[in-house]
Amino acid sequence: AKQKMEIRLPAQRRATAGHVAVLAVLLPLCCRAAPELLRYAIPEEMGSGSVVGPLARDLGLSLADLPTRKLRTVSGDEKRYFALGEDDGSLRVKERIDREEICGNMSPCALSLEVVTENPFNIFHVSVTIEDINDNAPQFGREFVDLEIMESTPPGTRFPLASGRDPDVGTNSLQNYHLTPNPLFSLVVKESPDGKKQAELLLEKQLDRENKKNHHLVLTAVDGGNPVKSGTVQIRINVTDANDNPPAFTKEMYKVRLEENLAEGSLAFQVKATDSDEGTNAEIIYSFSDIGDRARELLSLDPRTGDVKITGPLDFEEARYYEVTVEAKDGGGLSSHAKVHIDILDVNDNPPTLSFLPIMNPIPEDSAPGTVVAVINVRDRDSADNGEVSCSIDSDLPFRLVSASKNSYKLVTQNYLDREKDSHYKITITASDRGSPSLSSRTALSLSVSDVNDNAPVFEEAAYSAYVSENNAAGAAVLRVRARDADAGANGRVSYWLVGGSAGEAVASAAAAPYVSVEARSGTLYAQRSFDYEQCREFAVEVRAQDGGSPSRSSTATVRVFVLDLNDNAPHVLWPTAATPGSPGSSSVVSGPFEVVPRSAEAGYLVSKVVAVDADSGRNAWLSYELVQATEPALFRVALHSGEVRTARAVSERDAARQRLVVAVKDHGQPALSATATLHVVLAESLQEALPALSERAAGAESPSDLQFYLVLALALLCALFVLSVALAVAARLRRA
């Protein structure tokens, strides 16, 4: 459905004159469409700020809609003549409009412009017709017209007079001529095919030079305006003696076609007249009898040859034709006239001009295809094919041009944009006309793509592994995870969290909760406490990387932490019992139960087995056994890896009944840790035989208090020796000094 709207203003502007709107609605259906074309008409010379028409209301926009719809004009040269009222959205005159300056003698005179609205985007075409007012009086190109007429000229002869010119059009243009009354002359007004009035002087009666040789007349040109305006020219007639034959042009009307931009000095055309007289009466002088001011600047006439040459730049865009009248006068004063109609032919001398209005810059990268980015206006002052313009852009861009009207295009998105791939576009728009050769012009539009949060952070690795030795310090860095976000600004600013908790509070699962935390900005994981391999050998946490967009996007990565074993546990003797483990580098003594070995035992007899375990793993838990002390060292041996205690030889009668064995259990850590076990062996054939030996052992055992005394005494002696050594060393240094 199309809708056309026309609003006209009266030709005679008054302060109280209103704007009358005539709405012509073409609706074959019952629905209503937005107006496609708005037409207004105003008189010329309206003052700045005058209302052309209620544009916003005619577009169906209320005052409340104006801020969101962003109504504005986007046309080219015509934009300087009009502006939009900020308060009511009406179209107003921006600066003085002179119809004659803009359109010359062309009628109607219309200025076209486009207005756009947003949310949703739409383009409306507005045509403002500039109506003529009678602001120009008819004028003649000169103050006096001099005619020489022979007294023998027969009545009925006509003499062309100077033509008046009025820049106004229609009824305001030149309508008629008046001549002061005179019995010898009268006025004849002829109308040319283009509607122009041509005044001619008609000789009514025979002239008599002897009676009166000079006559003075006044020719008045009047227009049809209200009030009527007029202009005058003085006609001075000099009556001369007889000259039988006036000059005769070869053509009564010369029609000339000239291309614009002819070089100055070029021959435009030639007029030719002949005279049948002889002598000075046959000598012809050519001159322009009626020529406009602009044509006088562009053309020069050789008075002898009738050659007309170009003296200024012809411009089709300035004037499409000129009309002049050439007079041929002989030496006797007789003259004749010929009209010359000069058509200016357009050549393709004006490249197209481009102007654009950015609608959305920068444009969000998630804009749907078809989103309007800018409106481009093209103008070409040439005509016909020379003024037909087409626009194009590079085909490898995600944009395309859509024709909005004859002289405007919309630049729209063709595909979805990706700021991470291209954040800036330089779009070169080429406008080419259809002239031969074709002229073109280019303009570049710089377009930025704004970021939206369409990318989630991506970890450098999907899963991380960290290896931490046990007994680490609390707060030590375990591992740093890193995620990158291709977005910009806050959308690309990544922070890190443990899944299910917050940065700085170690949470991930019930098993991992006490162990680690993550620093929100750097992604560094820190140990919350010292790890113990014997309690937890490995654990996993999930780290979430989250950007600062709205809504935010995130991704997760799994971090597995493996606790490495240190040799921090000494072997633990399970048999014989009552063993106390020592610290690293130390050992402990175990006083265990006794074993009875018959005296008839042969070599290899299994006496007992030392059983020990180590809470560490790997080499730190590999145990070896060694006999470090025995009453009869040659009597017993200990298996290196199994801890079995066997007789190394057969038991003899000479061997003591009571045997004391000390076995060391050592791991393979660095440093190695060890423990000792004491095994008491009684050589006897039976338990009854072994009881006396056990009683003696109990009686001869030293009391624990005596053993403790000896240990303290030995420690005191060692300390005294250390102090004495330090004192001697200090004294020696002092003596040297």
Task: Write up what this structure looks like.
The chain has six domains: 38-131, Cadherins (Immunoglobulin-like); 144-240, Sandwich (Immunoglobulin-like); 248-345, Sandwich (Immunoglobulin-like); 353-450, Sandwich (Immunoglobulin-like); 458-500 and 512-564, Immunoglobulin-like; 572-578 and 593-690, Sandwich (Immunoglobulin-like), CATH 2.60.40.60. It is 9% helix and 42% strand. The radius of gyration is 60 Å and the shape is rod-shaped. The protein has 737 residues and is mainly beta. It is found in: Cell membrane. This is PCDGD protein. One of its GO terms (biological process) is homophilic cell adhesion via plasma membrane adhesion molecules.
Give me the CATH architecture of the largest domain, please.
Sandwich
Global mean pLDDT: 84
**CATH fold label of the largest domain:** Immunoglobulin-like
Main β sheet profile: 6 strands, mixed
Instruction: Classify the beta-strand content into a percent band.
Output: 35-45%
User: Which residues sit in consecutive blocks of at least 5 with pLDDT less than 50?
Assistant: 1-35, 501-512, 579-591, 698-703
The total of beta strands comes to 53
Number of helical runs? 6
Structural class estimated from helices and strands = mainly beta
Identify the strand order in the major beta sheet: 2-1-3-9-8-5
Ends apart, CA distance between termini = 117 Å
For the record, the count of structural domains works out to: 6
What's the level 1 CATH class of the largest domain? Mainly Beta
The CATH superfamily name of the largest domain is: Cadherins
Computed Rg: 60 Å
Pfam families: Cadherin (PF00028), Cadherin_2 (PF08266)
GO molecular function: calcium ion binding
Organism: Crypturellus undulatus
Membrane topology: Single-pass type I membrane protein
